[in-house]
Amino acid sequence: VCSSTGMSVPPGVVTVACWSMSAYKANDLIRSRAGRSARLLWLALVTATLSLTVQLYAPALDRLAGTPNLAGVAAGCLALVSVATAQTFLLTMRYEGGALRQRLRWRLLALATSVVLLTTVFLLTATPYPLTDPSAHDGAPAGTAPAPYAILDVPYLAWAMVEIAALAARFTRIAARPLLRAGFCPVVVAAVLCLLHLAVKVTTIAG
Q1: How far is CA 47 from CA 41, 55, 106, 182, in A?
Q2: What backbone torsions phi and psi does residue 140 show, to the nearest 5 degrees?
Q3: Exposed (0-12), middle (13-18) or buried (19+): which is 121, by Cβ within 10 Å?
Q4: Is 159 exposed, middle or buried (0-12, 13-18, 19+ CB in 10 A)?
Q5: In this model, does residue 125 exceed pLDDT 90?
Q6: CA distance readout (Å), 136 to 142, 172, 179, 186, 203
Q7: What percent of the chain has pLDDT over 70?
Q8: How many Å apart are CA 168 and CA 163, to the nearest integer?
């Protein structure tokens, strides 16, 4: 994570901060018996934090499992779940009843399909190489073609981010409280940045 001054924040610091927020919110949920929306937000935070943690210790986890890039795929699946949970949170604020259930059903199916497809293709196509290879990156040593599974999470993530950005933008316009409206602005920015990141990823792999 980089700041505008060019100084970098160690990934471990971000991960510790996320775990601290997760623990704080968990304690708050237990004490206040918060509703579904608060639980969804907490779940999105926890799964995102787990994804960051797995990425942080990916080399060690890969050596422990004996499978190159297994940790990276696990982190990707956790990220998918985190995004889907955030998507669900916003949908529950927009819809209710049958309309909500129908939308959640299709999004749950899309999430499950993405996770199963990503995992299956990884297991079928992962190329073995020495786990101590310093040039190894993203499932293959440097200089080789991108792994076939590297792009499989893009369709769902792109769809979810477009919907998250649209719903959050809508809430910035209609929310009654200024603080609530302001809270949705970073969500829109984050979703747009994620879409740009996905575009760069696709361009890099295609190139």
Answers
A1: 10, 12, 21, 24
A2: -155, 150
A3: middle
A4: middle
A5: no
A6: 6, 43, 45, 35, 21
A7: 83
A8: 8
pLDDT of residue 19: 83
Burial class (CB in 10 A: 0-12, 13-18, 19+), 145: exposed
Contact (CB, 8 A) for 62 and 131: yes
pLDDT tens digits, residue range 2-45? 333 344 456 678 788 888 888 888 877 777 666 788 889 889 99
Question: What angle (nearest 5°) sits at the alpha carbon of residue 105, between those of residues 87 and 166?
Answer: 30
For residue 172, give the nearest of 181, 164, 180 by alpha carbon.
181
Averaged over 56-83, what is the pLDDT? 89
Q: How far is CA 144 from the centre of its chain?
A: 26
Q: Which pLDDT score is estimated for 5?
A: 38
Return the bridge partners of 181, or none.
none
CA gap 199, 206 in Å, rounded: 10
Distance (Å) of CA 207 to CA 145, 151, 184, 196, 201: 10, 13, 35, 16, 10
pLDDT of residue 7: 40
Distance CA 42, CA 18 (A): 11
